[in-house]
Every structure is written in structure tokens, then in C-alpha cells.
Amino acid sequence: MSRAMDRLTRRVAIWRPGAIDRYLFRLVGLRMLSVIGVVVTIMTLENAPRLTADLEHADMPGRLLWRLSLDLVPEHLAIAIPVAVLVAVAFSVRTLAGRGEWQMLAAAGMSPARALAAPTLLAALAAGALLVNGLALRPLGERSLDGLYTELVTGSHGVAVPLREPVPLDADTTLMAEGAGPAPGELTGVLVRRGATVLTAGSAHIQSDGRGHVALLLGEGSSLETRADGSTQRLAFTGMMLHGQPPMLDLVPGNLRHRLDRLGGAGLWALAHDGAADATLRDGAAAALLARIEAALFCLLLPWLAAAVGVPPRRRAGGAAMLVGVVLIVLHLQTAAVVEDGFAAAALGATAAHAALWVAITAGLTRFVRARGDGAIDDAIARAVPAVRRLVAVLAPVATLRAMLGRLRPAMLTPATR
After folding, report:
1. What's the domain count of the chain?
2. Which residues constitute the domain of residue 201?
3. Residue 185: left if φ>0, alpha if ψ -120 to 50, beta else—which one?
4. pTM, full prediction
5. Residues 75, 221: one domain?
6. pLDDT per residue as tens digits for the range 247-279
7. Does one domain contain both 115 and 43?
8. Residue 395 within any structural domain of the chain
């Protein structure tokens, strides 16, 4: 009995937090926050041109751009958090291995699970943050985006009038503007065709009531009417008001994925258990809820995956394995989307199989590195590169020949054959 208690006491002492855990917690945690900030910033800047184009004709586009960017932050966090866990743990392991400290931990009898205790705790915190983000913050951001785009579509922030393109105001009226003035809603070089009458004005002002109806106030201009007998009549006017309801660009999709993305955890749970709802809708809600939970649990595997790709080879520099880790995260996101969309009718079994697959992949990479030694993945990539180069060298002439034959074949056909 005393021996068993001694063994238990030693095991508890081994797992008691110590200086190395505090050091790793601080090292990995700071890097995680840095990576999250960098990834979110990059994705925000990447989306800025598209968002700016959506706000081209809006009033105060700078303020609206900030609103759109903030609403997209939860969507960016869904990618940034797992990437940050992997990159932060992998770089921290690589730093320790470069100093020989990672090998010293193993030589001192510390198991890999014990060495990864602090990173795993951080991964659990990241998993909780990702779950809150997926079940609450991201749906909130998506609904806010829908509301803002609906305001843009209905003209609450200015009417989006494409320049030098015909814009129908109603079934009988078409507007075309050459340019936009400095004031919101101001147009220049305006031409309006209403039935057999053509109106031209040097300037005009277009305004929406926020419900899809617009009022077009033409400045000083002239009208040219073509009569039934072919004669024309030209009149000058100092101002004219026209009304219409132009077709609005559908910036807010209405498919099933869009609807489910706007529901939080409580909404998905209620819909999945709603007996009166359509079966496709219930299955989709269950699949979406399970996918968000599985995405959070995937974070718990990332410290092990990061340890496998983070330790460099002993006799040379490595880094390709880090890229493999990031590719695996992207692959997980893609396969999770396939499972959610394609296997909604069997959501629980499909999600469990998907999670088991990634547990097996992580365990396989971990065992591979343990069996082959530090930097095994980098070494495997280094050995595969020459073979890939030889394969490309063999296939490149074949592809070039096929392209040449594809270009020559139309010229070789006779007119009758054509």
C-alpha cells in the first residue's frame, strides 16, 4: 500500500506546475496572441479592396468600412486561432530544441505529454475561445453584416449607381450617369430615357427613402421627345423630379448555409430538435452545431501536431514541416465543410468519423517522428523533393507536347472536317 502511495505521490509531483510550465505558458501564450493579431490584420487588409468596392457609392465609406471590418473579425478568428496555436507551439518547440532544452527535458525523463502540459492548457483555452466565437460571436457578426448590407442595398447609405452603365429606374425609365459629384448622391452628365423621351442634364441628385424607392432630381437640362409621326420636340427645363424603384443588387444570399451561419448555439440546438421544421433544415442545424464543436476540439490536437512539425533536424536547418502543419489545418477546415454540407443526414456519425480521422493523422505523425527521430518530417520532405523534381522533368515535355498538338489540331483540320 505504501509503495502504491509513493508511486502516486511521485506522479502527482511530476504533474505539479513548475518553472518550466510557467516559462512555456508565457512563451507560447505571447506568441499565440501575436500570431492571432498578425493573421487577423492580414485577412482584414486582404478583404479591404472588396469591401471598398462594395462601398464605392455609399455615404461616409470610411466609417462603414470600419463597421464591415469589425463584423468580419469573428470570421477571421475562426482561422486565426487554430493557426496561432500550431505556429506558436511549433516555434516555441523549435526555439527550445535549438538551445538543446527540449532534448534536456526528454533526457530528464519528462514524457512528451508532460512537456506539452502548458501548451495543451493554452490549446484548451483557445478551444474554449473558438467555441464561444463559433456559437455566439461569429453568428452575431454575420447578422450585423447582413443588416449593414441590407441598408446598403436599400439605399440608407446612398444609392449605388454604376457610372456609364444603364440603370433601370422602373419598367419604362433608364438612367445613365457619366460621373459622380463631390456631394453624396450627386451625379454629373446625366441622361434619362423614359419611353420616347430622352432627358439630359448636367447634374442631378439621387436619394433613397431606405426602402428601395429613389427620387431623382434633375438640374437644368433639356428633353427630346419623338412623336408617333416621327417628328421631334425639344424642351428646356430648370428642374425635374423623377421617381422609381431600381432593382437592387442582392448582396445578402439566402441559401441554407447562410441561414445556419447566422444562428448561434442555442438557435441551432432549438432548430435541430424542432419536430415541426423541415428534415433538411433540422439535419443542417445539427451538422452545423457539431461542426463548430469539432472545430474547437481540433485545437486540442494542435500541440501534438506542432511538436511533430516543430523540432528541426539535428544536422541542418529545416522548416518545410511547419508549412505541412499549416496545410493540414487548411485541409481540416475544407474536410469539415465537406462533412457538414454532404453528410448532414448522418451528422453525428460523420462528425465523429472526421474527428477520429484527424486523431489518427496526428497520432501517426507523432509516432513517425518518435520512430525516425527529430526532424523526421523535414527529412522525409527533403528526400521527396528530388523525386518530385525528376517527375516534373519527365511530365513537363509531355504537357508541352500536348499543348502544341492542341494548338496545331485546329489548323490541320480541313474545312469539310470543321
Report:
1. 2
2. 167-244
3. left
4. 0.73
5. no
6. 654 444 556 777 888 889 998 898 888 766 678
7. yes
8. no
